[in-house]
Design brief:
2 domains; Methane Monooxygenase Hydroxylase, Chain G, domain 1
Amino acid sequence: MILLSQGLSVTDCLIQLMTVLGGLGIFLYGINLMGDSLKAVAGDRLKVFIEKTTNTPLKGILVGALVTALIQSSSGTTALTVGLVRAGLMSFPQAIGVIMGANIGTTITSFIIGLNIEKYALLFVGIGAILVFFIKNDKGKEIGKIILGFGLLFFGLGLMGDALRTILDAYEEEATELFSYFSKYPILGLFVGTFITALVQSSSATIGILQTLYSQGTIALFGALPILLGCNIGTTVTAIISCIGGGVQAKRTAMVHAMFNVIGALMFMALIYPYSWITEQIEIHILAGLGPHPPMTLAIAHMIFNILTTLILFFFIPLMVKAATKAIKEKVDERQSILESLQDVSLIEKSPTLALSFAKKSINFMALEVKTYVYMAKEYSFAQNSKILNEGAELEKTINSLDKRIHDYLIKLTLTHLNETNSHMLSVYLDQIKDLERVGDHCSNILEFFTERYETDKELSSDGVQDLEQIYGVLLQMVDASYEAIVGWNLDKAKEINNYENEIDQLEEFFHQRHVHRINSGACSYLNADHYVEILSNIERMGDHLKNIADGILTNEYCEFNEFDH
């Protein structure tokens, strides 16, 4: 029995392995808790950082580094970025800078671990728990969770370190032989780092374990560095998983992320000897003067890798974009892309505020479809066209599908913790899609009415045509103003809608009376008069629904949100 001969029973060995696993779980939970709470404290500012300040790759790098430092997870940042690209809230070139920056930001976790303050871990846990359970203020609770997560991170790391030390002491000879392979065969270390990181979905966890092993002297620097490089490849798995089922741009973003990390890792593997020598010199001549901090050596090595890789590959961004674009062909179908994205709840889970922005983008598209449908209904009212009839049927299906999926998406958002302003916006959005869908229904009614007229050769009188053209003219102005008010947050256009709605009401009533007069005077037969009143009524009801949309836009909360969002 090898286990017994080494002085460690089977039971003791299993206990130590469970401690390693439990420590890993506490470590991952601590990082996750700290990141989520930092996001909650940052609130909508995080949205502004990502969505509004990434218009150049350099800004994207800075934002990616900052956001990753905040949420303590490069995988989280890249998954969120892929989600934004997938939702159409960020362009593909914008995302590349953010992903590069995320690799730099993730080095912060290594530096935190390198501080070696695990003996104070339970103090942080205690302070954080007190704030969480005894502070009533929400922001105070989130700060407590940050401190609690910080403490748990080090507590879990300490558990892993103690258990690994016990196991490695018991099997020192075997462990030394095993880890010596990484110094002899660096490529093996690269694969191990990639596999473990892909498995636990956290490069921070893998690097944390690696720092513990290095500080215990179990693994040499030359053997540790390839594992460190492998961690950067393994972390790309998260982005790849995030883009499954996503659009072309999301897949391209994940591909560039993988290209960036793989090229960087292979580049440093080719230079592993000078890379190891430089890191060793830093440890001997700089870190030695600060005291024994072996974990900080790997933290600096990690930082050197990410910063140099970013500086070098920054100039090759256009080439990576070109390669990804060529490898993943685009199939343009915005309708299908939005409908599919509305079934993906990952953005709701990662950032409800950004998910609300995607819902708004979907409503903008729905407004365009409705506007197109109204123009088609007007055209069909004066000339029979089978192409319009077929396209109208497709538009009706799309509008109905958008209504259902946006509604379901927004309802899922109500289950998250939105602030008061965002909750009001969500309510307005629910009303908007309902009114837009009703406008689409009235367009379908008009197409049906005129299809029946064309099939039975019923023609409008010249006066009827003139009246219909006049009321349609006002309706189209109203539709254009409504679209600009929704998509462009144009409050002036929203104010115009009330005037248009009053004019349509007056015209509908006046033309109704003129129609009755034409029938009574014999200028129009009862046969040809069929459906004319219903057509006018449907146009008037469209005006009512568009006015409802304008009323929602002109609320104080909506106007204030506009100032923040645009």
